[in-house]
Design brief:
The protein is of the alpha+beta class. It is built from three helices and nine strands. Helix content is 24%, strand content 42%.
């Protein structure tokens, strides 16, 4: 006689602290020649680097977001009126206690805009491990309930299927945007407190078990 089988699905959801904050920094320049624009962008990139160096212990990684430069053409004809350029850097921060100070100092740089923070988990985060365990426990509890309903008990685990998609993380929303036309001493007196947005970690697990001979009522 074939073994009786029960299939049950378990779910678990937890809110956890984010592991990373992403800040996007963008600096712009405009000039009559391509060379002058590139030179100013290089100088601003170096200035941004100096600020980031002050917070090196809090930064996990810096990523170039690209260099863009384009000519502004006269409406009719091929004459170039000016060149517009921008350079971007994405900064991944793990020490949130200095994040507000970092954003203020970046925003004080000349013709620089700061976007963020965007809260997120690491791609290889283990925050989902406990949630998966909870989902398995939930699935087994349901399977045991189904078995008990027909006078049986769980005997053997056949299979566990992990349905956790995309690491089980749902990213939080972005934060503020700051823009500066030039550095001022007032920035030093400002304080920016940022509350990390909790991240939702969720798991769905399916278990297949065999159960003892059911004792169905006649």
């Amino acid at each position: 006689m074939a073994e009786a089988i029960v299939v049950a699905t378990g779910d678990a959801v937890r809110e956890v602290q984010p592991e990373q904050a992403v800040v996007s920094v963008r600096s712009e320049s405009k000039g009559r020649s391509r060379e002058s624009v590139l030179e100013r962008l290089t100088q601003r990139s170096a200035a941004i680097g100096v600020v980031l160096d002050q917070f090196d212990a809090a930064i996990e990684r810096r990523e170039s977001a690209g260099l863009h430069i384009r000519p502004q053409m006269k409406r009719r004809g091929e004459e170039v009126l000016a060149y517009h350029g921008s350079i971007g850097i994405d900064v991944i921060v793990t020490d949130f206690t200095v994040l507000g100070d970092l954003m203020l100092k970046l925003g004080a740089e000349e013709l620089t805009s700061v976007h963020g923070p965007w809260w997120r988990m690491r791609a290889d985060s283990r925050a989902g491990a406990g949630v998966r365990q909870a989902a398995v426990a939930d699935a087994l509890a349901k399977a045991a309930e189904y078995a008990a309903a027909v006078g049986a008990r769980i005997e053997r685990l056949v299979e566990i299927t992990d349905s956790l998609s995309d690491g089980g993380f749902r990213a939080g929303a972005g934060g503020a945007m700051m823009r500066s036309k030039g550095a001022t001493g007032e920035t030093q007196a400002l304080e920016l407190e940022l509350e990390p947005e909790l991240q939702l970690v969720q798991a769905t697990v399916k278990v297949t078990v065999t159960i003892s001979e059911p004792t169905l009522p006649i």
